């Protein structure tokens, strides 16, 4: 389950599938000169966008009423592949999709590309950063969970309750990093509550987590009109510096911080909440305790932790 997406996805006839399109020289032979393709830089890389657009339209079975925009190719973490962003628009609804183009211009990959010598989530790991964001759990934890969340999203409330129990039980293995991602266009008090959270975290990290769960606990009764007065009572109970809190809100630093995490999320393809990244693995929508534990076990097994701890001391 998840809150509304920022960009509604178009649904085509037939499911998207990961596949390799092997293109003949008739189709893409002139896209990239074969004798210079391997030496291309970002600025030099170019494709015959019309031919590529027509090929994609045919391969995906898209009607002429769906417009297709092909961006310039960009470098990727895979040295032999370029990234091509394609925007599809149908009936006023748009969605973006990433393709990978071989540097010789003969192959287009639709789907994920994995380097067997690196994490399958290396692209996400390169973008995920803990830039002073509120975190719970051990700093040395082997599993980092980045959570993009909206205080007014009901599914985020469900996820928060699950993660609270998991972190309390497995805090030595898990570090939870909170990232604000409010949908202010549909949630009237999500942005302001996120700003309050930023300012509270600057004063006291432990109090922030109290605020985090307190805000979700009262989500159903909360509204835009009473938010300020409710937070005022919270600050009194937890002995926060109210003038400092007001200054944090007034000087724009909180808005800047929330805007930063929104921008980070958008670069990672986050378009709904909650969205989690578990050691780089993107999970869209709320997941159950069982699902989360299964993913934790998968990570620990990959790191060899389960094998080391699954036998009694002194036995193999």
List the helices and strands and how they pair.
Blueprint: E1 19-22, H1 25-28, H2 49-60, E2 67-70, E3 74-75, E4 81-90, E5 93-102, E6 107-110, H3 122-127, E7 135-137, E8 143-149, H4 154-170, E9 174-180, H5 190-203, H6 205-217, H7 227-237, H8 242-250, H9 253-267, E10 275-278, E11 281-284, H10 289-302, H11 305-309
Parallel strand pairs: 8-9
Antiparallel strand pairs: 1-6, 2-4, 3-4, 4-5, 5-6, 7-9, 8-10, 10-11
Brief summary of the model shown:
The chain has 316 residues and is of the alpha+beta class. 38% of the residues lie in helices and 19% in strands.
Written account of the structure:
This protein is an alpha+beta fold and 316 residues long. The chain has 2 domains: 19-111, no CATH class; 124-302, Glutaredoxin. It contains 11 helices and 11 strands. It has helices spanning 25-28, 49-60, 122-127, 154-170, 190-203, 205-217, 227-237, 242-250, 253-267, 289-302, 305-309, and strands spanning 19-22, 67-70, 74-75, 81-90, 93-102, 107-110, 135-137, 143-149, 174-180, 275-278, 281-284. Strands 1, 2, 3, 4, 5 and 6 form a 6-stranded antiparallel beta sheet that branches. Strands 7-9-8-10-11 form a 5-stranded mixed beta sheet. Strand 10 (275-278) and strand 11 (281-284) form a beta hairpin. The longest helix has 17 residues, at 154-170. It is globular and about 65 Å long.
Q: Looking at the structure, what is the overall shape?
A: globular
SSE-based structural type:
alpha+beta
Question: Which fold name corresponds to the CATH topology of the largest domain?
Answer: Glutaredoxin
CATH level 1 name of the largest domain = Alpha Beta
Number of helices: 11
Radius of gyration computed on alpha carbons = 23 Å
Number of domains: 2
How many strands in all? 11
CATH superfamily of the largest domain: Glutaredoxin
